[in-house]
Amino acid sequence: MAFWQILILFKLPSDQTEKLAPLLAALVVCPPWVWLAVRTKQCLQVITSRSIPFSKRKVWLIKILALIIGAGNVSGILAEIGTPWFLAIVPAGIIAFFSLRENVSEIIPLKPIQDPAVYQSAWREYWRLRDSYRRSGLGFVAAFVLIILVHLAGVRLPQSIQIGLFAACLVALFVSIAIASVNQWKWFHWRCPRCGCSFRGVWGRLWLPKKCAYCGLPREEESAIRNPTS
After folding, report:
1. Rounded to an integer, what distance in angstroms lies between the CA atom of residue 188 and that of residue 203?
2. DSSP of 53-104
3. Distance between CA atoms of 73 and 136, rounded to whole angstroms?
4. Are residues 92 and 17 in the same domain?
5. What average pLDDT is seen over the chain?
6. 121-170 tens-digit pLDDT
7. Which of 39-43, 48-52, 130-134, 138-142 is most confident?
8. Whole-angstrom Cα distance, residue 100 to residue 59?
9. Is the pTM value of this prediction over 0.90?
């Protein structure tokens, strides 16, 4: 059900609906930016799975950007609901206070144990994540095709069966999207077994590069990992 249909069910006036929609959107956007502003290092480590190095300068630049967006949105929300401007800037000041109190330093991913067994295990984990991502992608395609087939065959099926099949396919589609997103996040942030940083670098390419973006470790081929004695 669309957002505007939900508002119609509550019979909100159109002028209130127009004001409420951007307000709810701002409430969704604010918490992540405030978290990034106040606990910049912790937030960056979580969203990058502790696999991306950041210099102290970059951390400061990200903190300042997050502070501008987060604190500005908080003040904007309060002003939107009718709070006087001199009170609306108080929460923004509190956010800025705690943000600037953080001890900012560079972020360096932990270096893995340099052991042949650990090295081989890390590459096996990579290929396992690659296969899981591919399977979840195929599940998404299958669910999407089933939805199209159910829609095309809808005129020949009873309405109750059509609704049930469509709901099941829709659930399968959302589940496959969630699983694919998790697998993609893990796969894109797979850490190099030599330096501990993301093998793909900051942006994460859809394919595995031939060497690590940070230390230059050559890519280990799948056949060499899965058939070490051949």
Report:
1. 9
2. -B-HHHHHHHHHHHHHHHHHHHHHHHHHTT--HHHHHHHHHHHHHHHHHS--
3. 37
4. yes
5. 80
6. 888 888 888 888 888 888 888 888 887 887 777 667 677 777 777 788 88
7. 39-43
8. 12
9. no
User: 72: which residues sit within 8 A by CB, 6+ positions away?
Assistant: 92
Q: Give CA–CA dist 128/37, Å, rounded.
A: 35
Query: Rounded to an integer, what distance in angstroms lies between the CA atom of residue 172 and that of residue 179?
Result: 10
- Domain with 55, as residue range(s), is 3-101
Domain-ending residue, one of 101, 136, 161 = 101
- Let me know: does 198 contact 127? Beta carbons within 8 Å: no
* pLDDT confidence band for 106 (50 / 70 / 90): very high
Phi, psi of 56, deg, nearest 5: -60, -35
The structure tokens listed for 28 are 């969704």
Is 217 exposed, middle or buried, given 0-12, 13-18 or 19+ CB atoms closer than 10 A?
Answer: middle
141 plus 219 within the same structural domain:
yes
Same domain, 88 and 159: no
Look up residue 30 and give its two tokens.
């604010």
**211 forms bridges with which residues in the sheet?**
218
Give the Cα separation of 165 and 58 in Å (integer). 50
Tokens 């990058």 sit on residue:
48
Please tell me the distance from the alpha carbon of residue 170 to that of residue 202, in angstroms, as a whole number. Answer: 33
Residue with tokens 């949105």: 73
Residue carrying the six token digits 């360096």: 108
Check residue 170 and give its pLDDT.
83
Would you state the structure tokens that stand for residue 5, as one six-digit string?
Answer: 């249909």
